[in-house]
Amino acid sequence: ENHCVTPESGRSSETLSETAETLQVDVNGHLTFPDDCIAAGGQDMLPSPEAAYCDSVGSNDSGRGGSELQFGFDSQPCSMTYEFDLHSDHCGYLIGKRGSHVNYIKEKTNALIWIRNALSPFNNEKKIVSIIASDEASINEALKLIRKRFPLAIYPDVTLERSNHVLVCPPTLKLSPPEAVEFQVVLSATVNAAHFFVQLPTHPSYHALPPFTLSMASMYTHCHAPVVTSPTVGNIVVSPVADGWFRAEIMEVFTEDDTCKLKYLDYGGYQIVPTSTLRQINFEFMQMPFQAIECYLANVTCHEELGWTEESKISFENLAQGQILSAYVAGIADDGIPCLHLYKVTGATNTFINQALVESGLAKWVSYEQ
C-alpha cells in the first residue's frame, strides 16, 4: 500500500482506509474543538445527533435538496480524491454555519470538500462527500477532523468508509436512428470519410444541448470536481476540450503512460487524453440523452492501397457539413453501428453523398449480401 511521510514525525502515516476506520475521539456528551477553530462555540455545535442543526452556507438548505454544495474551490491543483457516503441529515453539520467547518478543514489541511447528490435519483437520503487534496497526508488530516466532528460513539452510521462512484453507459441514454424511414441528421464529427457521428435535430432533447453544454462548462471550470482514480472501460466521465467540458465514455485504458481513449458522447469523435485530466460526472448531467450517434457510410469502402485518405475526409465534410441532411439506415454493421445513406438536399436537387464519393474516385462501391 502507498504510505506518505509526515514532516512532523518522519514516519509513515496511516493509509486512508486505516484513518477512516480506526480514528475515534473520546467525548463526554459534547464535541470539543481547538480554540482557534471558527466553528467552536457556534450555535451549530451539537451535544447529540438528535439536535442536528443544518445551515448550508448561509441558506436554509438542509442538505437534502438537489443542489450541489461546493466549498473552498480555487485554482490550486488537486490530484487525489477520497469519497465516502453521508446521510443528508448530517450534511449541514459537516458544513457548519455559513461553511465554517469545511473552511476550517481547508485552513488546517489545504483539502477541499465537495458534497454532491448520490448517483441514483431515487436515493435522496444519501450524499457523496469528496475530499480533494494534492497528497495523501492532507486527506488523512481532513478525515481526522471529520471524525472529530462525527465521533463513532455518537454517530455510528458515519463510518467514513471509502466508496467508489462510477457510472457506466446506460442504454436508455443512447439515441438510435429510426429504421425503415428517412430522417434528418446533422454531421457533428468525422473520423474518416466512412466513419462519423451525427445528431438528430428533430429529437426533443436536441435544442437543450447548447445550454446543457454551457452548464457543464461553468460547473467544471470553476469547481474542483473529483478526479477519476480507477479508469475502467465503459465508465462515463467528463473531459476538458478547449474551453469546455464534455461527457465521454472510456473506450481503452493505457496503463503504461496513464492515458485513456475516449469517445465523446454529445458531439462525437475519439481522443486519447491523460487520465489525470478526467473528472467524475455528477448524476445531474446524466439526465439528458447522449446526442451523438456513431455511424458508417453504407455501401462504400476505401481503395486498399490508399486507405481512407485525408482528401476523402475533406471531400466528405464539404458535402455533408454545416447543413441538415436526409438519412436512411441501409443496414447494421457487425459491431452494431448503423450504416447510413446520406443525401444533401439543395432545393429540388438531392446529392447522394455515398455515390458522390465513389464518382470522385475517393471510394469504391460495395453491395451488401442479402
What does this structure look like?
This protein is α+β, with helices and mostly antiparallel strands and 370 residues long. Among the domains are: 80-149, K Homology domain, type 1 (Ribosomal Protein S8, Chain: A, domain 1, 2-Layer Sandwich); 175-202 and 291-365, OB fold (Dihydrolipoamide Acetyltransferase, E2P), CATH 2.40.50.90; 205-285, SH3 type barrels (Roll), CATH 2.30.30.140. Helices cover 18% and strands 28% of the residues. It is built from seven helices and 18 strands. It has helices at 16-22, 91-95, 100-109, 136-149, 209-222, 310-320, 353-359; strands at residues 69-71, 80-87, 112-117, 126-133, 167-168, 183-192, 195-199, 235-241, 244-254, 259-264, 270-274, 279-280, 293-297, 300-301, 324-332, 338-346, 349-352, 364-365.
Question: How is the topology of this model organized?
Answer:
Elements: H1 16-22, E1 69-71, E2 80-87, H2 91-95, H3 100-109, E3 112-117, E4 126-133, H4 136-149, E5 167-168, E6 183-192, E7 195-199, H5 209-222, E8 235-241, E9 244-254, E10 259-264, E11 270-274, E12 279-280, E13 293-297, E14 300-301, H6 310-320, E15 324-332, E16 338-346, E17 349-352, H7 353-359, E18 364-365
Parallel strand pairs: 13-16
Antiparallel strand pairs: 1-3, 2-4, 3-4, 5-8, 6-7, 6-15, 7-13, 8-9, 8-12, 9-10, 10-11, 14-18, 15-16, 16-17
